[in-house]
Amino acid sequence: xxxxxxxxxxxxxxxxxxxxxxxxxxxxxxxxxxxxxxxxxxxxxxxxxxxxxxxxxxxxxxxxxxxxxxxxxxxxxxxxxxxxxxxxxxxxxxxxxxxxxxxxxxxxxxxxxxxxxxxxxxxxxxxxxxxxxxxxxxxxxxxxxxxxxxxxxxxxxxxxxxxxxxxxxxxxxxxxxxxxxxxxxxxxxxxxxxxxxxxxxxxxxxxxxxxxxxxxxxxxxxxxxxxxxxxxx
Length: 233
Fold this sequence. Notes:
By secondary structure, the chain is an alpha/beta fold. Helix content is 33%, strand content 15%. The chain is built from 7 helices and 8 strands. A 6-stranded mixed β-sheet has the order 2-5-1-6-7-8. A two-stranded antiparallel sheet has the order 3-4. Strand 3 and strand 4 form a beta hairpin. Helix 1 packs across helix 2 and helix 4 packs across helix 7. The chain is globular and about 50 Å long. The protein starts with 8 loop residues before the first helix and ends in a 12-residue tail after the last strand.
């Protein structure tokens, strides 16, 4: 790896962020949530951090996506396709606990996914062994919701305005032909779900925030409890 003075700005910021992650519960297993709306860049960021970790410290960083713990489509849409059902019915958190969080805390292997949302079928990957002092980075939406309190040793929020995240998210699924305008009806389910979540998560401040609006120039900021606008998503 090049000397830090010659690294691109994004990589310099990621080194700082990685240092924060790897400092959580040193010497033992730790679980960190990487939270943020659809299209903000969480999955790519998590992969970058995992690739960078071996070059920065000797501590293992392993990534699991909450997307591998969706409910089947029939369950997700049984009560309609609204912002409320998106927030309440999308994910099987009990499965996440059984396959990942509880085994990890017990020093056991983890099963990284139980469902393929694209094919709408269960999956059965091999369990993954992790080091005794590994950091497990769980990335996804809605991770600071009330029923997940107590599951994370630290939380991070990846942030950008809807005018940025909606077009980014839609670009991943061009065949769905959603508009780039967050106010367009085609985006209502996801935008409304994030608004519900934003209101429910306001009392649970993240440990840090990464403003990922400009992918080449992200900004790592620390939340200030006297400045609640930092928690807007």
